[in-house]
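We modelled the chain as a single entity of 345 amino acids. Its sequence is:
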Amino acid sequence: IDEDLSSDFNFQQNITAVYTQYGDKLGKFSYLLGLRYENTQLKGKTTPLFPENFDRNFDFDKNFDGIFPTVNLVYELGEDENITLGYNRRINRPRSWFLNPFPSQSSRTNVFQGNPDLDPSFANAFDLGYLKRWEVFTLTSSVYFQRETDAFERVQRDTGRDTEDNIDIIENIPINLATEERYGAEVGVLYNPAKWLRTNLSFNYFRFETDGSFEGIDYGATNESYFGRFSSNVILPWKIQWQTNAFYRGPRQNAQTDTDPIASIDLAFSKDILNDNATISLNVRDLFNSRRRDQFTVTDNFTSRSSFQWRERQITATLVYRFNQQKNEQSRRGGNDRGDGGEFG
């Protein structure tokens, strides 16, 4: 441990935008058009404790301008049936830890280092969708295509340094790869047969092709994967609410790394008490302790195996008492959804 080693990275992101929308309906046909102009400024200043250890200045101040159109078209085949066609242009900005040039170690042999030369990526996305509603059943489906330039990719390389017991130290860095094309299909089903049972199921299959090189190494790859989600809300006897959220993502592969499938289940039980003035709940996140990313990397210089888990299984019990406030008012003001979806980036 080197207690004298320190670093300071000051990051600032400024986004300025103006946008307009216009829509109308003509018989069975409706449309919504949008146009947004956006300027992104990314600024970073690095202050190392020992500047002599760095062979370059990592400070940056970048500006990116872009015009982002949106087109949404809807044609009604019937009162509960329609076809949609959409197009939009998107920007994906690098997060601060992707830009931070100071290395951070997850173990003696693995180092993650941000890339201050990283630029935002831009994508054009198209989708064709179909929706049909029945009395207790709703079907949604779509096919889509997306082409992204300067797409982000994380690559691993040998640093040329070893640990004291002669194990290679591997560096993980993000880069802008040339392009990524992704196309696939998604289907979703809502099934609500009774007031006490509501279910939602979705499945997404996609294929992607990446093209690009870094430091003379080709990182192009072609692969396919899929993921699915399931959620249900069941009202049990004594008005106990039981919620289930399940997620599964199939295996993935890029030019260097194979990623194993990930599956997880979250459960929640709640009941209103004291004339609905209080709610007791029990939550279990990652019931089977399986929300873990396992990867195996093969390069010309080394192989590595890694396992990453945000948190192990969590069990939480809560009691909420509402003073002079109805339950539905509290729900409108904001719930307790953490919004992480149980996924890894």
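As a brief sanity check on the tokenised model: The longest strand covers residues 7-26. Helices lie at 96-99, 327-333.
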